[in-house]
Amino acid sequence: MRLLDRLHRWTGGLIGLLLALLGLSGAVLVHKDAWVMLPHARDAQLWDTQAIAAGVERIMADPATRPRSIIFATRDFGLNRLSYAGDAGAYSDQAGTIVTRWDSQWQRPEIWLFDFHHHLFAGDTGETVIGIAAVCGLFFVISGTILWWRTRKTFAFRLLPKRLSRPAIVRHHRDLGVVAAPLLALSLVTGSILVFQPLAGIFLGPSAPTQIKVALKPPAPRKAVLADHPDWTRMIRTARSLYPDAEFRILSLPRNDSGLISLRMRQPDEWIPNGRTTLWFAADSGALVRTRDARALPRAVKAYNALYPLHAAKIGGLPYRLVMTVSGLALALLGSLAVWSFWFRGGLKVPTQPPRATKVSQGLKRPA
Question: Per its UniProt record, what InterPro entries does this chain match (predicted)?
Answer without folding.
Answer: PepSY-ass_TM
